[in-house]
Amino acid sequence: MVVVMAPEATAENIAAVVDSVHAAGGQAFVSRGVSRTIVGLVGDVGDFEALNLGSLAGVLQVMRVSVPFKLVSRENHPARSVVRVGGVPIGPDTMSMIAGPCAVETPEQTLEAALMAKAAGASLLRGGAFKPRTSPYSYQGLGEAGLRILADVRAETGLPVVTEVIDPGSVEMVASYADMLQVGARNMQNFALLQAVGSAGKPVLLKRGFSATIEEWLSAAEYIAQRGNLDIVLCERGIRTFETATRNTLDISAVPVAQRLSHLPVIVDPSHSGGRRDLVLPLTRAAIAVGADGLIIDVHPQPKVALCDGDQALMDTDLKGIADIVSLLSPLMGRTLTMPIADRAAVAV
Amino acid sequence: MVVVMAPEATAENIAAVVDSVHAAGGQAFVSRGVSRTIVGLVGDVGDFEALNLGSLAGVLQVMRVSVPFKLVSRENHPARSVVRVGGVPIGPDTMSMIAGPCAVETPEQTLEAALMAKAAGASLLRGGAFKPRTSPYSYQGLGEAGLRILADVRAETGLPVVTEVIDPGSVEMVASYADMLQVGARNMQNFALLQAVGSAGKPVLLKRGFSATIEEWLSAAEYIAQRGNLDIVLCERGIRTFETATRNTLDISAVPVAQRLSHLPVIVDPSHSGGRRDLVLPLTRAAIAVGADGLIIDVHPQPKVALCDGDQALMDTDLKGIADIVSLLSPLMGRTLTMPIADRAAVAV
Amino acid sequence: MVVVMAPEATAENIAAVVDSVHAAGGQAFVSRGVSRTIVGLVGDVGDFEALNLGSLAGVLQVMRVSVPFKLVSRENHPARSVVRVGGVPIGPDTMSMIAGPCAVETPEQTLEAALMAKAAGASLLRGGAFKPRTSPYSYQGLGEAGLRILADVRAETGLPVVTEVIDPGSVEMVASYADMLQVGARNMQNFALLQAVGSAGKPVLLKRGFSATIEEWLSAAEYIAQRGNLDIVLCERGIRTFETATRNTLDISAVPVAQRLSHLPVIVDPSHSGGRRDLVLPLTRAAIAVGADGLIIDVHPQPKVALCDGDQALMDTDLKGIADIVSLLSPLMGRTLTMPIADRAAVAV
Amino acid sequence: MVVVMAPEATAENIAAVVDSVHAAGGQAFVSRGVSRTIVGLVGDVGDFEALNLGSLAGVLQVMRVSVPFKLVSRENHPARSVVRVGGVPIGPDTMSMIAGPCAVETPEQTLEAALMAKAAGASLLRGGAFKPRTSPYSYQGLGEAGLRILADVRAETGLPVVTEVIDPGSVEMVASYADMLQVGARNMQNFALLQAVGSAGKPVLLKRGFSATIEEWLSAAEYIAQRGNLDIVLCERGIRTFETATRNTLDISAVPVAQRLSHLPVIVDPSHSGGRRDLVLPLTRAAIAVGADGLIIDVHPQPKVALCDGDQALMDTDLKGIADIVSLLSPLMGRTLTMPIADRAAVAV
Asked: EC no. (chains A, B, C, D) (predicted)?
């Protein structure tokens, strides 16, 4: 059950709703969106109906939830949302590129990759310090030491940091370094993790599970939203099919479908979708043309020695093509390429 | 086993190879490509090796076939091919649009759809007279009467006709009306049909089976090529996955992957991929941007009363968007939009 | 639209229905089932309704078809059917095993495989003379010469012959040798072929397409039934999934699901499902236990030199296990193991 | 890298290995298996090789890990393992049934379901207190209150308790109530959770992710094993495919394939696989016949009012069929049906 507050509702009005729900033995999660505040209720629907919440001051509407997601749905929020990450907007009017190494390995490798990313037009830095790997014998990441490297590189380059968190117990620690928390494909239905990032006070990048339907993906986003965090960016990164020529099958249709069902921004990962360096450029073109709100791309100064997913990382020589195509196609799709913060400051002066 | 003839090989040289193979109890299929002639051998490899074909006059190379396709592979034919359909080129330098009704229903509906298609930039007319339908109780098409309608509309509009053939026994009859024979997704591994269209003397549009790997798709093309017909255009039209939001999942990566493995042109069907009218425009944009050599799109004057796949057919009002985007994006991808023959004639004058 | 005739309807009654339909420009297909005759109509439903067929003599019921299959559905025919192949029953009370080589190679290999099959409890012989292969460079079968070998081996062993047909044009020829016509997985939606085998006067083994839903499989059977042939046996042989440890994924649930939706017998192919010799025995056990009406198993005297699918063919030494388990489990499932005809004759004497 | 200790290795020998690894900056996880102790190393392989661990006392073998799993592989441990849960064995010689309600709702419902389960032959009780649900608006379980109910029902019935844990942070708490910790399909690659249950000192039931390959499933088990816990039971519960007639597709072949690759017991969940009550009995038969080491089945006194997955829960009237078939088929497969502990005690007296 969801309680939609009126635009003019006061903090006291909201608190009164929450208190009523608590008194009835339920749980209430307050989500403050761009245009209004929503209170999500978990518990016995019969008990909640007996409360007659619709009669409380400041309450606009009480909705029974029949679809598996509501707060993230476009039906209830027709305007497409803009999510800001360290000041960088991701939304319907911009093209924002996140780039960086799949895994943080050394300060030098990370800085070099960040500078490559920036030169290619990226305004956000990606890099993994905690790597969820299929085998326990694969490289697992540097942990907190990797986060410190990312923070140093952010200081040097001005690029806000997007990094993965894999355990509810370390969300707070990771959030203390990151500008955006990434939930990876394997954790898309790790509900404890979704709830933890929903409460962490940082924007979230939610990758689609490689065998999740679009409805399940949006339902996972709803878990985050229900904790009061609507700053969610969805990322299509390929689904698992019978085809073996590519690592995954980029579901390019998922971009317009998800944008129609949800007000959240949707970006595309052309690197993990195909798992092949030679596909990154054509899939980037397709992603921009289909209407994606952004891109997330693996780059590495020396892909051959990368500890993780080197086959798909772009090298310096590939990045000119990305930079060119992003500059060329974005304006045709009605979008402004987001520039790195530092450069924008310079421009502003 | 494949025998590659030297560029200067004479008809007699080729005949000598074929005769040797026949004498050894094998079958030989001659394929005359743009730059050279290839003889495909079927039968006992040991027997063929004993023939020492490499020593015959005009033979450049004798290859044992280890991959499932050879004549259509790019390895043996690095230049990407151009296939001409009623004079209209489909290949690396052009953007050619095939459009028309899923099923031919009446002369009026077909003509109206053809005029819509032409106005939207199509240079080729599609239309089904034989419809392979999952249920025997669904509309099965008009048969030869439908082909006559298509021929009449071609005469009126100047658009060459692409139409499906579903039975080896009717290939000759369909080929007498059509400019290009379409093999549908369900028949991609109907090898008797592939062999029949390979011998029919008309270009072939080979749709990817909805659960075929790219390797199986190219192997199916090889069946056609082995009969001496290299005028094959591949068409990606979506694969079957667990996702139910779309009818199929457009495998956009298949376009660059197939173009890398094969010299044949690859086009995209944004209508059947998604099965939803609202997805045709974004998927068309993605297809052009990823590098497709053409498009095939369903249009219908009154989709609501269409006897087949009305949910995905574009109406008059949608076509302006298609025309605009094709004109805008094609030149950026280094392609010239192919114009209808009649108009080109006019221009030429 | 389907017209169900009363049990007491005469040939004249049936002809009258057919004539009416023809007069209205439609097509009528008469199916004589065990308990009643059904006339399937293809054409304009509105025209048919105007005929008021329900008022004709001998007509029990006129049904509009809303699901994609009707004649093969259990809803209209609650009793499960028995299909007889050369006198051998396949149905709810028996366990019938079809075994033999994937491909007929030589008279010796075929006879030896048939004797192995018989010793293991098979009452029907399988063997392919026309092989639909993914690559044109794979072994394609002996053609009619292979059918003659099968006929000879039948004469020697008393085992009726099940063999694949891949082309509508050769159905009549293949039917002149075979006791049962097999439609392979790749041809499950080759509608021209389905219609041809529906008219051939021989029982049909319809393999499930490797990416066909159960509904599509039954709809394919309906194409055969609509031509008047209800002697159809369905065969589950594995579907295509992301799992690569097995060649296909045996959909064991499809057996009870198809038996609930259709009155047709359902058998299982444990050889092609897994594509691994070591899985044939456990999958055979699972198939019998789940309630399958029969089995089809690859055997070969020397799998290592088999021209087709040797990895999955059972050898002599494996067959004792199959014979034992079939004898043990079948009675527990309320089934009698079908014996070869010759032996039954001997028993009868 | 994995260090295999000799059978006669002492605690001091093991400690010496661990200390060496720590000194080199690596991590070492000791797994005490039935026949030998294994030390799993995580860190820089080059550094470890420099240690020359093979020369230390009590070390039998040092293996570089090339496949993604080792401790759970059968290659290194040919004998199939038996896992004991509250004294109940799950392994190659027994048939052990886990049954109970999908979700714990009330003390009465749970007790009633447990008594139903016991009467049907179950020796272990399942019941969910923490439910990972696709939508945050679905019933999420009673939490710790549910665990208390399970403990009470165990005291009353003598059935050890199997229950799901969904968050690394609550593993210790759940383990204080449960006899076996279940990791659900959605959490199969929640590596933080796998590591936490690996350290919890209780046997683990690891469900296969619904789109996980068998190799990924065994790799997930390796994460648990690496923390020193080899008491792992694998559970096949259906994979995601294109087929929609069933909720998931039971991959029956996965049972023999996983048993061949790993020494761990493998059980089957016929309830979640099909998601349909009418399929539970046939799939149970197939599971026993294919060689599964056990079953996990949903039962509910009143499925129509179940808060979770009522469509698939068996009712009292269905259970007689399960009890009969398990008693009939298990001995044929060389297995003794495991009896509930209390009853066995009685028998022992």
From this structure: 2.5.1.54
